[in-house]
Amino acid sequence: MSDTIFTRIIKGEIPCHKVYEDDRVFAFLDISPLAPGHTLVIPKEPAPTLGELSDESAAAVGRVLPRLCRAVAQATGVKDCNILQNNGAPAHQVVMHVHFHIIPKPDAAQGLGIQWPAGKLDPDSGSMMAQRITAAL
Ligand code: AMP
After folding, report:
1. CA dist., res. 110 & res. 47, Å (int)
2. Which of 5, 35, 76, 114 has the most Cβ atoms closer than 10 angstroms to its Cβ?
């Protein structure tokens, strides 16, 4: 399978504004930011979606994500942010290489806008769903 644009960025074949790198993780500025400081945090492992990522890469990303959030907040002066992680085209994933967006929320006009069509959890179906998820782990 051919490299995604993010693998090519990790390899240095495509330029980026890098903010962090270690042996498993790479982070750089999003080329189309929703707000100043919009940063992408990616594992070097080229897993397309989060569910396909190894525990080791997931742990490595999780270990640095809070530190990167603090750095983005300090650099932008914006303490509020959203972490966004899309999986699959219907869920708005465009680049098929796992990535976490750190999106500062400076005000209502900038940053992530969210539609949240909340339902109501029925106790019986909730109980069944929780059992099914637990059994699938
Ligand atoms: P997603 O919709 O979650 O797959 O988001 C992919 C993100 O990658 C978008 O926010 C794009 O702006 C960003 N992106 C695509 N190409 C590049 C690039 N060459 N450098 C930096 N960010 C990019």
Report:
1. 30
2. 35
What are the structural domains of the chain? 5-136 (3.30.428.10)
- In three-state secondary structure terms, 63 is helix
pTM for the whole structure: 0.97
Ligand 1 centroid, distance to 127 Cα (angstroms): 38
The amino acid present at 57, given as its one-letter code, is: S
Nearest one of 91, 111, 109 to 101, comparing CA atoms: 111
Q: What does the block give as tokens for 102?
A: 């750190």
* Ligand 1 pocket test, candidate residues 4, 40, 42, most atoms within 8 A of CB: 40
Task: Using DSSP, state whether 101 is helix, strand or coil.
Answer: strand
**Is the Cβ–Cβ distance between 3 and 46 less than 8 Å?**
yes
Contact between residue 43 and residue 98 where contact means Cβ atoms under 8 Å apart: yes
- 21, 27 Cβ separation under 8 angstroms: yes
1 pLDDT higher than 90: no
30-52 pLDDT tens trace = 999 999 999 999 999 999 999 99
CB atoms inside a 10 Å sphere around CB 40:
24
